[in-house]
Amino acid sequence: MLKSSSLYRSIALDIAQRIINGDFAKGAKLSGRTLLASQYNVSPETIRKAIGLLNTEGVVSVSQGKEITVVSVEKAYAFIEHYKSSESVYSLRQEIELLLKQKQELDARFEAMLTDIINYSDRLRNLTPYNPIEIEVETTAHVVGKTISELQMWQRTGATVVAIRRGTEVMISPGPLARLAIGDRIVLVGDSEVLQRMEKYLKMPKETPE
What we know:
Elements lengths: L3 H18 L7 E2 L2 H8 L3 H13 L3 E3 L5 E3 L2 H55 L5 E4 L11 H4 L1 H5 L2 E7 L2 E4 L12 E5 L4 H9 L8
Antiparallel strand pairs: 1-3, 2-3, 4-7, 5-6, 5-7
Helix pairs in contact: 1-3, 1-4, 2-3
């Protein structure tokens, strides 16, 4: 439902357009407010406001006897153009407000989803009994140049090797013949003490890897 201000403005614009179209010629007398009210199906008060707006803009004149006369087709055109511009600005402002509201809603949803992801990740990490850990093969480590099979890592440390990172490459589930090199990062899983056992094993002297 149109607000009363929008309604009488719309009627004023329609009357101005009818003047431009030639329905009401310059100097023509418009029907009384009551008749116009019945034509537009609005109250006489709404017509009074519409005519008052046209009168202010110099499109029509209203005599003391409330006779309405068309005085300027040019001003009718200017009136319409003015309100077209105003409506365009108003429409753009409304669209911007709507887009800003949608952006705020999307930002809120995005933040909520990120929070959920973080919470789920933390929850899963706490629930997972086999958290992958990484340990680097140092230059002096006795494992350099040896295969996983030769090293018998699981038997010695209880660690299961799930991957080997070498530079930008990752070997997933390396086989027993995978050979370790300096700088490799061994990705492994095991119980809560597997990291300590693995570090101790890698630091064993080369002469006595047992």
